């Protein structure tokens, strides 16, 4: 024998075989029964070698053996039989479900095989609970359950079904149950095939006898020159049952719970159209020969606080095994990691803030914003200064009697490169006017060249693009209730957001309100915000990635230890590598584009007044010019009224002429 079984030791083996014993007390047995029990030990080891997955040792692997002081002779014989294997292909880790297990976080290798020794089916729950808490837990491992007591024909089938059902409820399907035939030394192996005869792994229908083994003494045969020896008598029932978890699944239903969450799932409560995840599931189901069956989750559940409630919580359908998978742009969280299993991630999304796009800047300023304030002040100053010079030139030459206002108009005409009524005689004045005309040509060309682009391109007010800007501007904040946990932080911004946070039971409705509510930011998925039907993409602005609340990987959530999960993960990996995800995402986005075009929502503010690719100027594009003209007319009217009143007062009170008369008469 190798190292003693009553000590702790390490076997240099890569494969873990976990033997779980249940302390059921000392059960008195007679010598015949004890002898029959011990006689099946060689068959137990022989059949375990057949069912268990084993590989020859290439690297060190930790295996711990802890034998209870009161372990039965039968259990000790089983352990010795594995320990004395000269090939050492199976490492042994012994557990005692009646005692709490010490920290096993250092063991990272998943168990490939389990051997559970129980007296009856009621003793199975405790070792399963213990094993599920270990980091080595693997529901896809090969499981052998051995009854350590003989079962009468009356209770045999009931006990076997109970064992299979208990393991099935824990998502373990690769199960073989060893039972000693009553009052014999024959060991029988019973099992079930979840997908046999078109089955869908939903209930244990038929029990199948797959192996029989007896270890007997073969008497000596002098004629054949054979000495007495112990031999195995075996019968294998090779019915065409196929593997327990086959490659194809009889077009069984794959039940899926989902929320309507574009671009992952597109549709409504009564009909699922397409979507990134829907197309992915269709491809996976077709490959596995499954039929996806969708049920829509209530919107209030998807936005409410996430709990472990298996009756009314978000995960209730999966926890109660009414559905197999959940989709809808989901990601893992601390609660889902404890209750559910997840596929490998296939999409990266952001939780971010979205606000209304900045409004158009007032159009009446279009004719003024071509140049900045200083440029306008310099240009206006040049006009008045040139008018003053021309007024002085006209006074020196004594050509015509004109006031300063008239000269301002002449100076403005020169600066705009239009005809002006002024004919000076002196060469120096003419040269000045030629230079002034060149200035006017340049100014006029620059003004009109910029004017076209300003009039035809929409201008916007400053866009709110950070959380700090939103807080300073007095924005309110809103989002789903399950997002509040992200703002439970000590910084000032998070505290402010938490105080002003408004819970939205329907995020799409909140997005739609951004059309009318200008001072609110919605916390929402970036992918969904750009694909939601509730609001046009041009009406929404989402903060840049540097302002993300949270970045996460999207995956499907499944029943805990779902037996189809490894195959689904394999297909998701192939789909991701093939580039189909990008294609399906574009198809999902195209659904919204087509619907927007049909509904007439495809136009944006940037395309206002466009016909045949040309921009047609409307009154609001040049309303600034009309406003300026109206202001000029109003000033002229006021000046006219003032002149009339001044003229009448002068005649009535016989005022003398003064310097002011030169400018108004």
UniProtKB/TrEMBL annotation:
<keyword id="KW-0472">Membrane</keyword>
<keyword id="KW-0732">Signal</keyword>
<keyword id="KW-0675">Receptor</keyword>
<dbReference type="GO" id="GO:0005886">
    <property type="term" value="C:plasma membrane"/>
</dbReference>
<feature type="transmembrane region" description="Helical">
    <location>
        <begin position="403"/>
        <end position="423"/>
    </location>
</feature>
<keyword id="KW-1133">Transmembrane helix</keyword>
<feature type="transmembrane region" description="Helical">
    <location>
        <begin position="625"/>
        <end position="646"/>
    </location>
</feature>
<dbReference type="InterPro" id="IPR052192">
    <property type="entry name" value="Insect_Ionotropic_Sensory_Rcpt"/>
</dbReference>
<keyword id="KW-0325">Glycoprotein</keyword>
<feature type="transmembrane region" description="Helical">
    <location>
        <begin position="364"/>
        <end position="391"/>
    </location>
</feature>
<keyword id="KW-0812">Transmembrane</keyword>
<dbReference type="Pfam" id="PF24061">
    <property type="entry name" value="LBD_receptor"/>
</dbReference>
<dbReference type="InterPro" id="IPR056198">
    <property type="entry name" value="LBD_receptor"/>
</dbReference>
<keyword id="KW-1003">Cell membrane</keyword>
<feature type="region of interest" description="Disordered">
    <location>
        <begin position="591"/>
        <end position="611"/>
    </location>
</feature>
<feature type="domain" description="Putative ionotropic receptor ligand binding">
    <location>
        <begin position="143"/>
        <end position="205"/>
    </location>
</feature>
<protein>
    <recommendedName>
        <fullName>Putative ionotropic receptor ligand binding domain-containing protein</fullName>
    </recommendedName>
</protein>
<feature type="signal peptide">
    <location>
        <begin position="1"/>
        <end position="25"/>
    </location>
</feature>
